[in-house]
Amino acid sequence: MDILQNLVHMTGQRDHLRLEFSVLSTLLQLPHVTQVRALEIHPFEGQPWVRPRTWLQDGQLVNTDIDFLHDPQRKPLSTLPTLNAGMLRKQERIAITTADGLHILWLPVWMREQARVCIEITQSAEFSTHDLDILLAIFQVYQNYQSLLDYSERDALTGLLNRKTFDEHLHRFSNSTKAENMTEIQPWLAVIDIDHFKQVNDRYGHLFGDEVLILVANLLRSNFGSQHRVFRFGGEEFVILLQPMSLSAVSEALEHFRQAVQDYEFPQIGKITVSLGFSGAHMRSPSPTELLSQADEALYYAKENGRNRVCHYETLQALGVLKKQEQITHDDVELF
Ligand SMILES: Nc1nc2c(ncn2[C@@H]2O[C@H](COP(=O)(O)OP(=O)(O)OP(=O)(O)O)[C@@H](O)[C@H]2O)c(=O)[nH]1
């Protein structure tokens, strides 16, 4: 009955992290389970890394508040060779018995051919068929619910994160930037807008316009998808929340993307360009709303000064070329 109540609680969650807490506490109700953890898997410098994100400590489930790149607990996935090999084979479950007699079951959460999270369950007794039946049923409910949540967070056309989730990500992002005490290395927010996109629709029709949006989203994903957060923000506008890096690194990454779009041959249409504006989220940063409007001001400047370029808000400000633009609003939607 406790398990049923837990399942009811689990499916009442509207947030990935709360859902994770909920599944772990449900699993902890099972008689032989001694430890549960949610492991986060992240690509970094060309290989997958892993770290515990949620675990049981002194009888309480705790969740890390450190971002992945700064977490001292992260390590290459290859240091867990059985898990690593199982993940490479895209296995649905991976089990080992450790030298000290513990039985560990790993259940990667596969979504769109990728697993970013893996549930780890440890027992002192071997997993019986009965244990497995119950564990896997709970996990299945969790996984189904996780993909429903994921679906509701994505833009239907491009598969990028949608605007609805942006507030929450920006809030987390701005909280994590407060913890940063660095000046040179900082997180960034970039706004990207396709140039003269109306002409694409007018000349070739909406279906071709939609295809351009999908292809630009694919380029964004391949350039920024693994470490940063990419959103489709409105019609032909995208936003990226970029992990901490230096000004020269972020300029290079954004410039690389701008060039990639310029070089891309869009079927039937040929060449398309994008304009980008970005701003740093350092400690002195104003509110998230202002951060967004700073990046927007830089984008506006890029549009006014030839398009197909990347503009940095703080540099433009230091040069004194930005006029205060009260008229910059995000289309017709109120964000905050
Ligand atoms: N095909 C398609 N078009 C869209 C979608 N959402 C918005 N648009 C179109 O995007 C165009 C945006 O045009 P504008 O904001 O006027 O600007 P622009 O032509 O891109 O020009 P600049 O931004 O000034 O370079 C409009 O024609 C919208 O109809 C969509 O989901 N699909």
Automatic annotation (TrEMBL):
Entry's EC annotation: 2.7.7.65
Any one GO BP annotation for this protein: negative regulation of bacterial-type flagellum-dependent cell motility
Residues of the GGDEF domain: 185-315
Catalytic EC class: transferase
Annotated GO CC locations: plasma membrane
Reaction catalyzed: 2 GTP = 3',3'-c-di-GMP + 2 diphosphate
A Gene Ontology molecular function term of the record: diguanylate cyclase activity
Superkingdom assignment: Bacteria
Any Pfam family: GGDEF
UniProt name for this protein: diguanylate cyclase
Annotated source species: Comamonas denitrificans
